[in-house]
Structure formats: C-alpha cells, structure tokens
Specification:
Family: Belongs to the isochorismatase family.
Largest sheet: 6 strands, parallel
Structural class: alpha/beta
Protein name: Nicotinamidase
Organism: Gellertiella hungarica
Number of strands: 8
Radius of gyration: 16 Å
Pathway: Cofactor biosynthesis; nicotinate biosynthesis; nicotinate from nicotinamide: step 1/1
Mean pLDDT: 97
Strand content: 15-25%
CATH architecture: 3-Layer(aba) Sandwich
CATH class: Alpha Beta
Low-confidence stretches: none
CATH superfamily: Isochorismatase-like
EC number: 3.5.1.19
Strand order of the largest sheet: 5-2-1-6-7-8
Number of helices: 5
Order of helices and strands: EHEEEEHEHEHEH
Helix content: 25-40%
C-alpha cells in the first residue's frame, strides 16, 4: 500500500497568501502529476486550520512582530503573521490542486496554546492528530511526503512519520517541496538524510510507477 502525503498546499503558503513560501505554487503541478501518475493507492493531505486567536500569531502578543521569537505556553515560539485561519480563503487548498484525488485530509494547529508544524502531532509532542492511526488502519507500507514548507511542516512531518510509523518506508520528495530559506532547506534535508530518510524526486517516482 503506497501513499502520498501532501503537506499544507494551501493559499496561505503560496504567493499572495498571508505567509507565502517563495515559489510555493510551483509544487502544485508536481502534486497533481504525482496524484495522477505516481502509482499511489492513497492520497493524504494536511491542512493548517488555526482559530483566529491562535497563540503562534504575532498579533496575539503585545508589541510583537511577525518572525520574532516569542513564547507560547511557556516555550520558545516563532511568531507568525495571521495565516490559515479556519474557514477563510487563506486556509483553502490552492485552487489548482486536484482536490478530488485526495482521500483523507488531516486538519492541524487547532489548539490555541500550541503550534502544530507536523501533520502527525503538536509541537509539544503531547497530542497526536490521528493521522498515524489512519495510515496504520489503511495498511500503508510506503509513504512519500512533500509540500510546504520544507524547513518547517514538511521536515517535522517526515521525522514524525519515521518515528510513529515503524516498518513504513518514508521518503522526502524534494521537488514537491519549497522552503522558507535556502539555509533552512539545506539544514532540513541534512537532518532528514541523517535520520535515514531517502530523498527522491517526482521523476524518480514516475519512473518507478511506469515500470
């Protein structure tokens, strides 16, 4: 059972969104091609789904500015612009994403007191989203992951998948992903490789599927 996890392919993280990742929209055609022709049995997606008063937003901290370090529930927290507020256009999947091909959507970041980069659990590592249970329930044996942004939500999703899904082959799809900064992407890819995660491209996957 081969699955693809698309991490946060939302308007908010694409150009024109409230927290845009440079070239974030360029991964959408890659995602669509992989969903169509990548040989996957299951397509999963995560979706940032914040309440309007989420504690990771700089607007919720007096005198704070976006991209400053602050605290949330007593722990260090990067403070972000308001983004992906549930029910808003910013939180919607990118309009060109072929959403009808997605079998299961995992919403995350709904607790105002903790951020949730990973599709699998909150940043304090105490609360699981339920995605790992869904993947186990469906009998997945191989999981490819990509999306936005490489150095945050994708990296943490990959590393959590590796830990929470023993026995499942986990791979990072590089051209299905874009990051906040080149330095952050380089560090994230190095960290994933060091954990034993293979780095593949969509071309690799499409070649596999055609064999």
């Amino acid at each position: 059972m081969k699955a693809l996890l698309l991490v946060d392919l939302q308007n908010g993280f694409c150009p024109g969104g409230n927290l845009p990742v440079a070239e974030g929209d360029q991964v959408i055609p890659v995602a669509n091609r992989l969903m169509r022709d990548g040989g996957y049995d299951l397509i999963l997606a995560s979706q940032d789904w914040h309440p309007a008063n989420h504690g990771s937003f700089a607007s919720q901290h007096p005198h704070a500015r976006p991209f400053e370090m602050g605290t949330l529930s007593g722990k260090p927290q990067m403070l972000w612009p308001d983004h992906c507020v549930r029910g808003t256009e910013d939180a919607d999947f990118h309009p060109q994403l072929e959403k009808s091909r997605i079998h299961f959507v995992q919403k995350k970041g709904q607790d105002i007191g903790v951020d949730s980069y990973s599709a699998f659990r909150d940043n304090d590592r105490s609360a699981l989203t339920g995605l790992a249970d869904e993947i186990r329930r469906r009998g997945v044996t191989a999981l490819d992951i990509g999306g936005l942004a490489t150095d945050y939500c994708v990296k943490f999703s990959v590393l959590d998948a590796l830990e929470l899904l023993p026995g499942v082959r986990v791979r990072f799809v590089s051209d299905l992903s874009r990051g906040i900064s080149p330095e952050g992407v380089e560090a994230a890819v190095s960290q994933m490789r060091a954990a034993g995660v293979p780095v593949v491209t969509s071309a690799d996957i499409l070649a596999e599927a055609s064999r």
